[in-house]
Each structure stands twice: as C-alpha cells, then as structure tokens.
Amino acid sequence: MVVDVVAAGLHPRVRSQADGSHYTSTGQLPLIPGMDGVVRGPDGRLRYTILDDTSLGTLAERTVMDPDRSIVLPKHADPVLVAAAMNPAMSSWVALRRRIDFKRGQSVLILGATGNAGRMAVQVAKKLGAAHVVGAGRNTAALEALRRLGADEVLPLDQLAGAANVDVVIDYLWGEPAAAGLVDMISARKRRSDPITWIQIGSVAGPASPIPSAALRAARLQIVGSGIGSVPGRDWLKELPKLVDHVTKGEFDVRARAVPLKDVEQVWRTNTDDRIVLTP
Length: 280
Ligand SMILES: NC(=O)c1ccc[n+]([C@@H]2O[C@H](COP(=O)([O-])OP(=O)(O)OC[C@H]3O[C@@H](n4cnc5c(N)ncnc54)[C@H](OP(=O)(O)O)[C@@H]3O)[C@@H](O)[C@H]2O)c1
Fold this sequence. Notes:
single chain, 280 residues, alpha/beta, Quinone Oxidoreductase, Chain A, domain 1, 2 domains, seven-stranded mixed beta sheet, six-stranded parallel beta sheet, 8 helices, 31% helix, globular, binds NADP nicotinamide-adenine-dinucleotide phosphate
C-alpha cells in the first residue's frame, strides 16, 4: 500500500541502518532510512507501521508498506507521540512478553534506564506486573527522575551489587559496564542457584562485552538477546495492538520532539533526551 508518512521516529536503529552498522544492514543502496512510523493510507485512516527489511523507509513524504505489518490507530491518536514511543517501548515489551517467561511479581533491573528505551522499560515492567524495578545508568541526575515513572530504586553503574538479587536484567548498555556490573551482581548474589535472566537489547556502551566465563558457572545465569531475529516477526506484530492501545491512551510518559523532515540534516547527529520525530 502506498501511504503518506505523517510522523517517523529518528531511533538509534534508523541512524545505524543509514550508516550500515546495524546487524541487519545489507549495504544495499540507494537507501531511504526510517523503519517505522505513522502513515495515512488511501482510506484516510492513520496507521502505525513497522516496515519489512526494505530500502524504502519512512523518512520520506510517501512510502510503501504491507498492511499486515500495520495497525489502524484510533482517531484521537497523536501521531508524533506514537512515532516516538513505539520503538523504544517495544524493546522491553516484546522482551518480557515474548523472549522470556516473565512472571508478575518478579524484580527487574534496567541497565541504561535514562535513555528513551530505558525510561519506557521502567514503565513497561511496572505495567506488566514487576514487583520491584531498579533503574541504573551513568547519569545520576536523570536517574532520580525515574522514580516519578515508577522506579522503586535507582543505582549508578558502579553500585549494581545493590541489585544483585533481581530476577531479570534488561540491558541497553552491553560493553564494559555490563560485564563489570554482571560480575559485581553475581559476586553479591545471596542465592546463586536462583535463576537470573539477562536480556541483551541495546549496546550503547559497546558492541562486545568481556564477560568472564566464571560468571556463567558461578550462578544460574542465562543471557539471551531480544531483537529482530531472536523474536519472530509474527510475535512482534501480535504485540502491536496492546501496546498501541496503552500508548494512545496516554499511559506512558513519552519524550517527543517533532521536527520538519526538511530539517533532518540539522538534527541527524543531535544528542537530545527527546526522541526526534520527523514530520514531512
Ligand atoms: N533490540 C531491540 O528491540 C531494540 C529496540 C529499541 C532500541 N534498541 C537499542 O537500545 C539502545 C537504547 O535505545 P534508546 O532508544 O534508549 O536510545 P537513546 O534514547 O539514545 O538512549 C541511549 C542512552 O544511553 C545512555 N548512554 C549512552 N552511552 C552510554 C555509555 N557509554 N554508558 C552508559 N550509558 C550510556 C545515554 O543516557 P545518559 O546520557 O542519560 O547517560 C543515552 O541517553 C540502542 O542501542 C538501541 O539500538 C534495541
């Protein structure tokens, strides 16, 4: 279906898709970046869509999408908010609902909790019934603000031993901080035979992490990844309706900044706390 683009998020994945560093990059050129967004179809209805692997992205006035990879939005939906929220929110939503056997009442540590995906993860974990949510990151000022979103506790990265007994870790950092944190946590863990599941989702602190082999033997640790490939596409799509419902009802605190598409060059490298949403 050929559609008009209404709003498309400038997610980290969009940047890494464009510079070829994302693990799904094919190197195919020319490429129009943009992997999801809110579009308007010929029937006039607004839809949120996640494009299939394609070189025709959403950073455009029009694009092509598969209706089966989209969901019609309610009339009151704010396109900018939806475009900003869905990618970061889906990362933890899908991980907890489709990648592991997460149970209500479990405790969750979020590594890299001050970014857009981390902030959403705090809220998603609470919504899915986490009994105790710990937000961890390098930015101590931003960490405090996570309490307003539902975090029960916040920790700087050098104090992860304080979260040693959690059931689940949602990791957006990887690199050195994840390895150091993992060792601190395993060393301080009270009952090492209690399962701990580490979900690797992002790698803002480094693509590789020097995790010592002993850490895998010393505790009942399971490391899994959640992303395109490790969760089947049909499972991602099945999760869209519920998450869209929560987002369009305004149940998540979302940081969004709309920028006209013509200004994309000025904001491409901008480091901002808000998720930039390009509007043609
Ligand atoms: N697999 C999936 O399904 C999926 C989906 C969405 C996103 N992701 C990935 O998740 C990661 C985060 O995405 P996002 O949307 O939250 O990005 P974001 O909004 O840009 O946030 C990333 C945050 O990471 C923090 N950070 C950056 N470098 C760091 C370092 N060296 N050590 C500690 N913290 C650091 C920064 O927070 P401070 O400046 O406050 O410290 C930054 O705000 C990205 O790698 C993205 O590709 C994966």
